[in-house]
From TrEMBL:
Keyword Hydrolase applies: no
Family annotation (CDD domains): ABC_Carb_Solutes_like
Domain ABC transporter: residue ranges: 6-238
Protein name: ABC transporter ATP-binding protein
Domain of life: Bacteria
One Gene Ontology term of the molecular function aspect: ATP binding
GO biological process, one term: quaternary ammonium group transport
Short name of any one Pfam family annotated for the protein: ABC_tran
Length: 351
């Protein structure tokens, strides 16, 4: 089997004797795009900084292209790791033009090749007409594109992006995130990116890592993170959803207050086990002919769809997503049926 481009084994690192990243292992194949997600302070940036060689490692190892770059006993300097980086506050050189900023990492190339690569990278990020401008003459989004072009120019083995669009407004962020996917795939550059935005991660990544308290809870495809979450934390963190209490009846069903839910269980749970079943908004289907009618406690109109919060009991609320023409108002009831295709259930009180 081909060696992964990035391989991290049992990584631990932190600050001032305090462990921030604990026993983290993952691998990334060449050309793959991966996103790290997780609540603020869970160690995403620290992981990226350790890969970049900016933080020492207290245990475990990091390999890039099968070369050991970090372990407790060995730390290769950042500039020898073959990385491109765009970090949150990654300032461009203010006294250099856009073209000179992008050319910065290409000092070893002959000048005609350098100029060609600069033009190519600026075209990739759609800034080909801005070569002569200075950073202060660009918008925030354009500056981030230049930072990306600069990081891509030397054809890094691995690109590390730490919330590159965090400072931009939501519309621009979404647009750039979409373009970023195209740019990365055209350049065929292996990428590890930190983001707060789960939708951005799902849209962009081949692989998503969900972190909590310095641990990597799951490293998987976006589909599996969403539909087969490893635990309750991942289920709640990645995407909308609600839990409904029930009791396992057999390998294909759970009895709940709303009737029997059927589908294959993700894990083997013994009959009689009390569980919380994860129901995503698309598992609850609005259907005027359905006999089940639940009161609407909240209605979130997003333009393309509406997310209804439906009261099941004092402690249970379900979410139902419909197209935005379903014009039922808060306080009314919505007729729904349960449309689960598989069961994601966690034993009550499980982590
Ligand atoms: N230079 C530092 N010195 C000491 N502690 C630090 C330092 N940098 C980060 N930390 C601490 O390490 C923990 C992890 O921080 P990190 O920046 O990796 O989190 P994160 O998941 O990237 O968070 P965010 O999403 O808010 O950027 C936090 O508790 C933070 O306070």
């Amino acid at each position: 089997m081909k060696a992964p481009l990035l391989s991290i084994e049992n990584l631990a690192c932190g600050y001032h004797q305090q462990a921030v990243v604990k026993d983290l292992s993952l691998s990334l194949a060449a050309g793959e795009i991966a996103c790290l997600l997780g609540p603020s302070g869970c160690g995403k940036t620290t992981t990226l900084r350790a890969i970049a060689g900016l933080e020492p490692v207290t245990a475990g190892s990091i390999r890039i292209q099968d070369r050991l770059v970090s372990s407790h006993h060995h730390q290769m300097p950042p500039e020898q790791r073959g990385l491109g980086m765009v970090f949150q506050e990654h300032a461009l050189f203010p006294h250099l033009t856009v073209a000179d900023n992008v050319a910065f990492g290409l000092r070893k190339l002959p000048s005609n090749e350098k100029a060609k690569r600069v033009r190519e990278c600026l075209a990739r990020v759609r800034l080909d007409d801005m070569e002569a401008r200075y950073p202060h003459e660009l918008s925030g989004g354009q500056q981030q594109r230049v930072a990306l072009a600069r990081a891509l120019a030397p054809r890094p083995a691995l690109l590390l992006l730490d919330e590159p669009f965090a400072s931009l407004d939501l519309d621009l962020r979404r647009q750039l995130a979409q373009e970023l996917g195209d740019i990365l795939r055209e350049e065929n550059v292996t990428t590890l990116m930190v983001t707060h935005d789960q939708e951005e991660a799902f849209a962009l990544a081949d692989r998503v890592g969900v972190m909590r308290h310095g641990n990597l809870e799951q490293w998987d495809s976006p589909y599996n993170i969403y539909h087969a979450p490893a635990n309750r934390f991942v289920a709640e963190f990645a995407g909308y959803g609600a839990f409904l209490r029930g009791k396992v009846t057999d390998s294909h069903s759970v009895q709940t207050s709303l009737g029997e839910l059927t589908g294959r269980h993700q894990d083997s749970l013994l009959p009689g086990t009390e569980v919380d079943v994860l129901l995503r908004p698309e598992d609850i289907v609005a259907d005027e002919t359905a006999s089940l009618a639940l009161p609407i406690t909240r209605r979130q109109f997003t333009g393309a769809s509406i997310l209804y919060h439906l009261r099941v009991s004092a402690s249970e609320t379900l979410l139902c997503q419909t197209d935005s023409h379903t014009n039922v108002l808060e306080g009314d009831t919505l007729h729904v049926r349960l449309g689960t295709k598989h069961l994601v259930s966690f034993a009550v009180n499980s982590e």
